[in-house]
Amino acid sequence: MESSEPSDVESLPRGGFRCRLCHVTVANKPSLDDHLRGKKHQRLENLRTVRQTQESRSVFVSGFRKGTPASELSDYFQAYGEVANVVMDKDKGVYAIVELQNEEVLEKVLAEPQHSLGGQRLRVKPREKKDFKYNPPRKQGSAKREQLSPEKLAENLCQADDVDAQMSLMVQLFEFSESERRLRDLLVTLFQEVFLEFFPGSAILPFGSSVNGFDVCGCDLDLFLDLEKTQSFQASAKAPNMTQEGASPEVDTRSEDSILSDIDLASATVPEVLELIATVLRKCVPGVHNVQAVLNARRPVVKFCHKESGLRGDISINNRLALCNTRFLQLCTEADERVRPLVYVVRYWAKQQALAGNPFGGGPLLNNYALTLLVLFFLQTRSPPVLPTVSQLKELSNEEEQTTVDGWDCSFPKDSAQLNPSANKENLCSLLAEFFHVFEDYDFAGCVISLREGQQLPLSSFLSSEADNKLKLGPFNLQDPFELSHNVSANVNEKTALRFQRCCRDAAKYCRSLQYQRKSTKGKIWGLVRLFQPGNPEALATDGFIVNLPLTLAAVPPQSCELLNQAGDMRQLWFQKICTGIAFTLRDVLRCSCLETAQGFEEEQAATRSQQQEEQIEAKMKLLSAGSKRPLENDEGEGVLSPSAKKSRIDTFLPTGESMTWDCSTLHRVWLGRRRVRRQLRGTDLDLTEKAGSLELEAKVSELISKQEGETTPTEPLLQFTVCARVTEAASGKQGTCVRLSFTPVPEQAAAFQEFFHFLQGFLPRMVEQYLVTRA
Ligand code: ATP
Ligand code: MG
User: Percentages helix, strand, coil for the chain, rounded to the nearest 5?
Assistant: First the structure.
């Protein structure tokens, strides 16, 4: 009988054990012994031995022509001895694992300096030795868990006995199912296998919510590709006179056909390495598609999607601090069992209120990492504290655990058993109410939240020129626990910060009611359910998604406003022109699809105005424009965008009344990284330098962003929304009339729409004005 490897068993804090081989947790030593003698463990041990033996007599083969059948490879290697099996990479057919009968045959194969098949030179290497990982076969359809609808969630929650039970239930309902966890493990193993072949010595390490204890079914898979060893292997292989000490004997980074012969990892830029990774993913990882290097993010990544499960993920290469903060979050979840339910509930609440989430890795919302830190900070500041501060954790760490990552102190204990249990006895129901209470009046802009110290710090300590932890201050200041110069919520704008406070206030008020605290005996909704109801859509539309365009826009002098207000016809023509400008900006400048809805807008009706009427109105308009203080500087620049788009032709549907609606969608994130692309374009085209801020330049910027985002046009729109423009009277004391634009995203995209809207608020009025000045 096989004996278990000692590394299979891991001791858990409260006397329990976990068998790493079988993913089984048991409560005590006798149960562990039972498990180790049991069928499952024995079967997996046998399987491990078989796999390891297979591995030790297999070679990794690449370089053959695509589509080469397994039988041809088998025939070829038969010349050296018996071939036991050939496993082709199913998806792309670019590599194969050839298992030979025994190690003698393997040695013969490896002794051959050059292999070729069908005129192609083959690359033949021994297989990398990997740890055996048990991944039981996935049951059909079990990887994708049905998304829980808000109705089903409410139904489940209402059945719980109290708020504490509701909060624990949230974790059970949202955390990964066994099959989802397995799918992720499987994918990580697959990536590891492929990357090891192309980047010898590399390691692929998951971080973020897949492993930090805040897993939510369907969340993205964040991966870090550690190339440090590969780089040193490459360096030692390149040094001509150096002995190969420390380098893996199997690593051949110099051979012509090694992917590493194309790149010097020590001097390559991050974009170059990421492009290479993207190529490996595209060509060699089965089941992966939509691979795309995103280079303009704070942390550049390669994005991918797993075809069968729809799982999305990122690979980054310079994100060691994230591995560290992932371990820290995990430690916090292990330190106190109230951490997970509280974070799950706050995250869900914030998502429903469109305050937080990771829509596209940007925008003015708090991201899930920042929101989680806020909850942890809250727990550090309870009296007595639920969690220790990061400084206290450092004190508790032993010598081995003292580490510095990218110059920042990341020392904290590995094991939660080193921490003292908290003396705080508050229940979940009251902790949640207190969370809202603490932040309803919090001065986010006036201080810096520090998890290292477990207290708020004055802004002054970050302003002095000597401060080595200078961080970007803004309306919401939340210092990263390790990278002390990083404000993790630097992206949050004032509006979101204020809304966060307002929503906390509403929630705190609700938490004081009996409806929150007690289960309804009459079958009404109670507890968390009311809290999770999305923010009133009306309220979102009135304070969130409105842009006002004054009718004085472009070339209408203020003194003529009164005239505009009186002259109904002219007012309508002006409205039409603004509508054309809006449609033009959305469609031609931002590349959105943008369809006028039929309701109330008929081309024929617009056309029924007599030629004479049109001319009269045009004449009045000219008169008004002549009085404008704003120069019509680009007037001669007609057709700046395309010769076909000539001046003053209102060739779309026109409003006949004083409102107009469009159904819109966007395929690309044209609002992200515009400044960078603008710089790029200006650098390459002198003509464009002169046209700074012009419709032409902006259209080119959108075009380039769309191109950079993906070679293939996505079929699913990123965002869908309607825009309704309406002539309204401005508030008293302001100029007479304006066009009120209200944007309504499809309900489930309210949060994701925020960042696009934030961009449109500034961009749209500028562009419509440009349009009116230069083209209307
Ligand atoms: P989810 O994907 O479920 O929204 P997440 O925690 O995985 O949650 P991501 O945005 O995917 O969030 O980020 C992955 C990880 O990257 C985080 O868990 C954190 O470790 C790190 N990270 C994200 N944003 C920041 C940031 N602003 N500063 C520092 N580290 C960050
Ligand atoms: Mg993530």
Answer: 45, 15, 40
